[in-house]
Amino acid sequence: ELLAFARDMRREFSRLHMEHEFAVDEVLTKVSILQREFLHLHQYNPIEHVTSRVKSLDSILHKVTKRGIDWTPQAIRTHLTDIAGVRITCSFIADTYRILDTLTSQTDVKVREIKDYIANPKPNGYKSLHAIIDIPVFLSTGPVPVTVEVQIRTIAMDFWASLEHKIYYKYNGAVPDHLIADLCDAADAAEQLDRRMEQLHTEVRGNGDTTPPDSTEELEE
Ligand code: 0O2
Predict the structure, then answer these.
(1) Cα–Cα distances in Å, from 138 out to 14, 15, 23, 25, 144?
(2) In a domain, 145, yes or no
(3) Are 142 and 19 in contact (CB under 8 A)?
(4) Could you tell me which residues belong to the region Disordered (predicted)?
(5) Which domain holds residue 133?
């Protein structure tokens, strides 16, 4: 009986994983369409790169245990909102909001929560837009809503966040004070860079079409 239970659980978890993979695919398709249409309309590509991941079973169970969530697929589906993650890196701050608005206003996307860490950065300097969305995945049995965490940020914010993430893990969360202060300074520098790049971009675009001749090729990488 225990063996049958274990087998059922394994099947349930692999279904959970698969549904989240499908949801990531759906979001990636939406992002790719937005990107290509944006390029067609405005002659520039607002998205630098897109990455995605589905949490491994190990890290799902680790987080579930830490949070005291029941080890049932149903409870996990309801309470763990970052099993599927898509990260969109944009060139400019204005683009991050534009992409967020366009994505979250699509009729099949249900917004669960939006966190604007660009307007309200975390105390350590972390900046990004986070959207927790439910997206329908069409299975043989019908549509199933699946939750995806979408993070949207600029290249400078992404650069900062990936270094901070490495430092945080290296020190197991107990980052020395001088590094925390340095990271705060670096976050300020990243913000300044974002502002200056945006100003430059606006200025140059205001002076007519500056599309580089190979801009469409960027999408084919
Ligand atoms: P990983 O390894 O990227 O998956 P929660 O995820 O709900 O426990 P919270 O704070 O309620 O945490 O949600 P929030 O703020 O939306 O953060 C979720 C994710 O945003 C994190 O996932 C990170 O990817 C990113 N993030 C949030 N804060 C920071 C930060 O200070 N530095 C960096 N580098 N990334 C951050 P995970 O699961 O924590 O990490």
Answers:
(1) 17, 14, 9, 12, 6
(2) yes
(3) no
(4) 201-221
(5) 2-216
- Residue of 59, 80, 82 to test ligand 1 pocket, by largest number of atoms within 8 Å of CB: 82
Cβ-contact 153, 90 below 8 angstroms: yes
Taking the C-alpha atoms of residue 102 and residue 165, their distance in angstroms, rounded to an integer, is 28
Atom of ligand 1 nearest to the CA of 85: 4
Residue tagged active-site, from 19, 149, 164, 191:
149
Q: Is residue 38 part of a domain?
A: yes
How many domains is the chain built from? 1
Q: Is 43 in the pocket of ligand 1 (CB under 6 A)?
A: no
ipTM of the complex: 0.90
The 10s digit of each residue's pLDDT in 143-197 is: 999 999 999 999 999 999 999 999 999 999 899 999 999 999 999 999 999 999 9
**Cα of 219 vs its chain's centroid, Å:** 19
149 is catalytic: yes
Decide: 38 and 101 in contact? Cβ < 8 Å. no
Query: What is the rounded CA–CA span in Å between residue 9 and residue 84?
Result: 20
Give 80-119 pLDDT, tens digit per residue. Answer: 999 999 999 999 999 999 999 999 999 999 999 999 999 9
- 126 touches ligand 1 (CB under 6 Å): yes
Q: How many whole angstroms from 36 Cα to the centroid of ligand 1?
A: 29
Give residue 174 CA to ligand 1 midpoint distance, Å: 16
166 lines ligand 1 (CB under 6 A): no
